[in-house]
Structures are given as structure tokens and as C-alpha cells.
Write the C-alpha cells for this entry.
Amino acid sequence: MEHMNENAEEEWNRAQDAKEFEFMRDNPPPVLDACCGSRMMWFDKQDERALFIDKRRERIEMRPDKSYPSGCVIDVNPDMQLDFTCLPFSNSAFSLVVFDPPHLQREEAKGCLTYKYGVLNGDWRSMLRDGFAECFRVLRPEGVLIFKWAETEVPLREILALTDEKPLFGHKSGKQMGTHWVTFIKVPKVGADKTANAKVTGSPDLSASPSGLPGYAVEDK
Ligand SMILES: C[S@@+](CC[C@H](N)C(=O)[O-])C[C@H]1O[C@@H](n2cnc3c(N)ncnc32)[C@H](O)[C@@H]1O
């Protein structure tokens, strides 16, 4: 690309990024991690069976604080930078979705804990309600959704009330047994989903997403 001037090179890079985005959107692997953070819970952080998304992309070295006396490095590098309330994937695109949203209510992240896990601010109940709805939309019928919730501030039952889907069973973990792993199965609802046969069209629609990250446009087949 020696012959290209800077503008042409930027344009070429943007076009490549758009192509890569469309390829990943249209050919995703079977598993979606809807808010991967630094992938702490994964056995293999580069597992090719999964698509890792998050609304942020950042690497921060944090000074020691109360919760992390040796400091910490936060490295969030998703395959696609997306907002889970407005996903660009077709209905039924994934066999399994894992949904582990932030659980700490703060205006902004300040220390290791909140940078690692993110924060809940503003109208976060609507955000989680929309997140559940999107995760179930992109899940295929009889697909499985794993939801993780740390019950340090908000009780699990209040969060489960944000979706009409009924959990199957769960498991508690952590020092205080405050981390819940909850399993759902998507049972097809006859006639409930008008966009069941919809397909994703065109380029990412940036205006569709509250956070300004790429959203989606659907049309009936
Ligand atoms: C609890 S952490 C996930 C931790 C992750 N499961 C792990 O193993 O490291 C929650 C993540 O949700 C991300 N997040 C918050 N709101 C989001 C949104 N609307 N869309 C996508 N990601 C979001 C945050 O950036 C944060 O990285």
C-alpha cells in the first residue's frame, strides 16, 4: 500500500473493517458472549466456538486499591464492539448465549472492581430488560441462555422479573454464595414474534442503538 495516500489508506481500512463486521455478523459461531469483559470466566479466552462482544474496548492498568491490593490490568478486547440492547444479528442466530451484565450500581467506574465488571447507571433496569429481550431474540428455539448475576446489591428475583422467560434451574457460587448462574431454555412461542422470519439487512444502523454502537435493521422476508 506504499502508493496510497493517508486518506485512501484510511478509507481502505474502513472498508475492510466493514467487510469483516458483515462477515462476523452473518456467519457467527454457535455461542454468543453478550458482554465478555476481560473473559475471566472462560477456560479458553480465544475459544473459536464463541463470539465475544462488549460495548467497550480498552486496556487499563489500575493502581492497587482496597479490593485489589496488587492492582489489576483490565483488558477488554471484544471480537465486535456492540451494545447488547441492540444486536446486529438475525433472529435465532446462536445456540447458546451467555449474559453476565454489570451488577454494581455506580455513576461511573473508579476502581479495579468497577472497571472489571462495569457499572449500572441511569435507567439500568430498562437496559437489562432490553438486553434480555435481545439475547432471547438472537437465541434459536430450544437454545440455552446462561445468566450470571452477583447478588451483592440487587436481589436476583428483581432482575429475573425483567424478562418473561422462565428460568429452569440455577447454582450459587462465590465466597458468600452470592453469584448466581441461572439456566434458561428458549421455548418457541407460537405467533408471538412478528419478526420470527425477519432477516438482517444492509449495513449496521448506528442510530438504532442507544449507545451509538452498531445496531440492526430488520425487514420481513
Ligand atoms: C460483569 S462484566 C462481564 C465479565 C465477564 N463475563 C468475564 O468473564 O470477565 C460486564 C460487562 O458488560 C459490559 N457491558 C455493560 N453494558 C453493556 C451493553 N449495553 N452492551 C454490551 N456490553 C455491556 C461491560 O463493559 C462489562 O465488561
